[in-house]
Amino acid sequence: MLFHRSEFICRLATHPHSAVAGVDSRLGRTGIMPAVWTSISRRILSLLILCLSAQHVLAGSPTYHQSVAVGQDGKPSLQLTNDSEVPISAFVITESSSSGAEARAYFDVYTAIGQSDLPIPPGTSISRTLSAFVGTDTSEVWAEVPAVIFKDGSSAGDPVWVNAILARRVRLHDRLLTLEDLLSPLVGTGISPGAIVEKLRTTLTEALKQLPDDDLRAVDTMAFFDATSTFDRVRQDKSENLLKLYLRHLEKHALVLEYSRPDLDTIRNLPLPKPERSSKSTPPSRSLDAGLSGKAAANEARGQ
Q: What's the whole-model pTM score?
């Protein structure tokens, strides 16, 4: 009587010696030649290798999941959980309403250094308050995380949104170099912090006139605002130490971006279109109304 392949594979995976012994006894009874046994064993080993390879690929695939909840204060928030074995370094939240309005919020450890809850370690979660459409009926608002980027440079989600996140890294790096070129010649000139502030504001105003009104525009504003606010706080300081320290800060931040993954040269070669508005057909589980319904059910269960 011939044996089943599936039976043998299972036995070989768990009890290899007993599996082979069982086959030997059956081969002895049926008179199958050693050459046939060799051919069969090779096929089975090939199947095992394919199965193990597939399991390894699936186990290593970066994943995440999200949910919407409502706190005791009645404010909805989106919770993002890292289900992979690699820290999440960046993600984007999109909120859209039935009227067609949309809001986006980007979070990236490389473009906003100092966010204490980034990167997101494997198996942990963080929450972000959803407040783009305050006062709007929650049943008409959707929120989701369309894409995340992991610390090793891999990503998950919509490729368009992945590229949108990465484009901000390139833009910020370019702006940091612009600021460095603008401020470096001022060392040793005796320029006051107030004069530096005015120079920065003039440069930003001229730059914004030539830039499209897209998601990247906020990166330019953020870079210049950081510089402007830094020197604006010390208008009475006559020393140049602050200018030198700030130039070191720019250099350090630029290096952080250069060592991020994927690297900046790779990002520059990616298609970086402006993301289209999210579809209204977002699953109900991601809607704000779903979170409110969950809270109502919990309150009812507690008798509130």
A: 0.69
